[in-house]
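Risk register update: the risk of archive-format incompatibility is retired. Evidence:
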Amino acid sequence: MNIMETFKKVAYWILISYYIYVFGYASLEKVFQSKQMMDGMNFLGFNKAWTLLIGYGELGGWLIVLFGLYKPAFRNIGMLLLFPFAVGAFTAHMAHHEYSHYFNALYVTVTTPMMLYLDKNFRIVVK
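Archived output:
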């Protein structure tokens, strides 16, 4: 294995480690209805039902990514399912000028395509 391949693997695992942390934290905060998260989601215009729906959606995708640590194909499916949540979170935080909260949303939005690109088993073919 050459140095570039080693760098790609290390970069991938660093990126996915924080990615798993961000979605795990965010989804569990919503599902367990922490006051801070519920108040923040309410400020963004999401009532309790929508917050729980988003939380369970994120939790499902997060669990698929975790399962993908053992079966790599599932990791990519989980990331594809979580990508709309990432883009939505980034858009919502930027639209409401919540710059103190947008880094994690920006991170998962940008790193999803990067990680899919770095995964040698993932390809999108358009004919």
